[in-house]
Amino acid sequence: MADFPRQAPLPIVAGLTLAAVLLFGAAAFARTPDEAPSLAPPGPEFSVVGVSTAQALADACWNL
User: Is-above-0.90 flag for pTM?
Assistant: First the structure.
């Protein structure tokens, strides 16, 4: 049986490098939180519930 030379994983490395460049390149041009547009006020069909603890938030979500 003949031993064939193992192929280098060049396509895999090139693909991973391209994916990383595209992902991090897009993130470099993303907006920062202070540049984001403000949210519209809630409509009349919604009610705003103020909560001060995690348990109060869980209860408010449970009661939806």
Answer: no
Task: With respect to residue 5, please indicate whether it lies within any of the assigned structural domains.
Answer: no
Question: Is 2 domain-assigned?
Answer: no
Domain holding 50, by residue range, is 10-62
Residue with the larger pLDDT of the pair 20 and 10: 20
| DSSP structure class, residue 38 | P
Asked if 30 and 39 count as a contact pair (C-beta separation under 8 A), the reply is no
Quick check: is 1 in a domain?
no
- Rounded (to 5) percent helix, strand, coil in the chain: 50, 0, 50
Q: Which amino acid, residue 36? A: A
Question: Does the pLDDT of residue 9 top 90, yes or no?
Answer: no
Q: What are phi and psi of 14, to 5 degrees?
A: -65, -40
